[in-house]
Inverse folding.
């Protein structure tokens, strides 16, 4: 039996680690990484997009707070 797993760790491009205070974009302390796991990477990306993340083709990721998207139900 072959078992595989894909793990996607997302960090917002606008995140600034400033200690326990929110940064200027409103990110909370240690809000990242946000993890998605599945058998396929495409499903991980689909789940992240459904949660409101914006993923660009050049490998950048923007959280729902910065992308202005609301999570889909």
């Amino acid at each position: 039996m072959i078992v595989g797993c894909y793990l996607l760790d997302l960090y917002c491009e606008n995140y600034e680690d400033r200690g326990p205070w929110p940064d200027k974009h409103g990110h909370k302390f240690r809000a990242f990484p946000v993890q998605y796991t599945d058998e396929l990477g495409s499903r991980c990306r689909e789940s992240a997009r459904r949660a409101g993340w914006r993923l660009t083709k050049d490998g950048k990721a923007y959280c729902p707070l910065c992308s202005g998207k609301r999570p889909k139900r």
